[in-house]
Amino acid sequence: MRCHAGTQSLAVVGFLTAGITAVHALAYWSAPYQPPEGATTAWAVIVLYQGAVVATAALFGSLGGRHKATSGISQEQLLGGEVDGMLTVLAAISALGLLFHYFGKWPLLVEARSGCLGELREIFLRFPREKLTELERAASKTGHLLSNFYAPGLIMASATLVSRGWGVREVAWLVLFVMMAVLYAFPMVSRSVLLTMLWMVTCTSVAAGLTVRAQHRWLRSLGVAGVVAIVVIALSAVVFVTKIECIGPALVEDNVDDFIPIRGQQSEEGARGGDGRDGATAREGAGMLWGKCAVCALMLTYLNHGVWNLAKVVSTEESGSPVLFAFASYWAVRLGIGLSAGARGEEGKRVYGPGGLTLPGAAYHDFGWRGVVVAGMVVGALLGLGLRLMRCPCWWWEGMAIFVLGGVVEGESLLFVAPGTLSFPFVAVSTLAWLVGMRAWRLRNTRGRVTGCDEE
Questions:
Q1: Contact at 8 Å (CB) between 10 and 69?
Q2: Which residue range(s) make up the domain with 183?
Q3: Which of 67, 91, 171, 318 is deepest in the core (most CB within 10 A)?
Q4: Distance CA 23, CA 46 (A)
Q5: Is the CB of residue 384 less than 8 Å from the CB of residue 9?
């Protein structure tokens, strides 16, 4: 049996993008309100972006022509004898990083009330850096850098479990790196870290299920991704529950009101307004979860806010400060090689609401429809190139890393621009360092000979 590689890439990436879009569409249509205008255009932007992702991934994945669909990559070619040793090294580095991380974040932890994660999040966002000593600042930066070696650990542990099966050792490795990711996220109460963990495990499991030669690999892929998804959803619910308990039930109304421009009482026309912002139109028969489940309302608001902001962007003729590559300036400032907008005497202008703007929304905001297509093509190229490299045993891990990082960007694309999140640059750096270390390790063990590249 033979199949075209582009068809396989089309199926895999199409499945991922369809799932991502469906989740956000369901969250959007479950809301009791819809934007006053711009909703149709916003979803057109999203569909165009996702179409560009899938088409480009299929194109890049087809490079090299046909290959045997049943050949796969054996466990020996993929894993060899280096996996357990490398996992040990990654766990040690991440554990050391967590020690630095908590030392640097200790002043924040002592200010928050016990069990009040919502308050801890606000403290993290507003804590003045001037109150930290030089040692605490250095520890914080070191902690961010080293802690994120949990990321390549998640990739290796997930791939190992899909390949080898649900052994005690394989499960233990995955649980360990999931715990490290959660511990890293805790002092910052970072949902983006949890989402990054989810998409890393999901993309690794899917790609390993596609390329590794092992029995029941697809069942294990679904099992790994499903278990981690349940963990992420449960932890997110805990965060929102504690926020409600600490701040009170009014948090739900205030939070929804912040993200969705609604205030005042329902008017006869079915729209609510009253503070100068655009009102939102009520949708009859929707919003049952919003009225009966406070945690559900907050979680659905979080899933919706990027699309709501995109609707605001496409419905206005105003243009704000650049969004798509704003993360580059932010990290230049953090690294001490650039000046903030305020320091340069510039005032940032924002034409959408609180929270993030979707990746296609940021591309549209900065470059219009062409920017949406190009953004989709770049993400699709990462996914397709990763799948293409994974067809060669000696480049399997590199292909996996490219596919996973592209998958994280795609998975978070309808919430925000993933490279703009706090942890993503550290995840990328730690993954690159891991690949260099893995390559050096394998070259040493094979005495400079890396074989298997001619097997397709």
A1: no
A2: 47-250+353-445
A3: 91
A4: 13
A5: yes
- Provide the H-helix boundaries in 315-421: 326-334, 359-389, 396-411
- Run of H or E including 425: helix 424-445
- Only one residue has tokens 């490398």, namely 86
Q: How far apart are CA 133 and CA 130, in angstroms?
A: 8
Judged by DSSP in three states, 274 sits in: coil
245-262 pLDDT tens trace: 676 655 555 555 555 544
> What are the tens digits of pLDDT across the range 202-217?
999 998 888 777 677 7
- 302 Cβ contact list (under 8 Å, min separation 6): 191, 236, 355, 415
Residue 324 inside a domain? The answer is no
pTM of the predicted protein model: 0.86
Percent of the chain predicted with pLDDT > 70: 75
**DSSP one-letter code for 319:** -
DSSP state of 278: P
Number of domains composing the chain: 1
> 17 with 407: CB under 8 angstroms?
no
What single-letter amino acid sits at 387?
L
Rounded CA-CA distance 201/181 in Å is 12
Burial 129-158 (b: 16+ CB within 10 A, else e): eeebeeebeebbbbbbbbbbbbbbbbbbbb
Q: What is the DSSP string of 176-238?
A: HHHHHHHHHHGGGT-HHHHHHHHHHHHHHHHHHHHHB--TTHHHHHHHHHHHHHHHHHHHHHH
pLDDT digits (tens, 9 = 90+) for 175-186: 999 999 999 999
Determine what percent of the chain is predicted with pLDDT higher than 90.
38
Of residues 172 and 394, more confidently modeled: 172
Q: Does residue 323 belong to any structural domain of this protein?
A: no
Burial bucket for residue 180 (CB in 10 Å: 0-12, 13-18, 19+): buried
In a domain, residue 55? The reply is: yes
In this prediction, residue 37 carries a pLDDT of 72
User: Residue 328 falls within a domain, yes or no?
Assistant: no
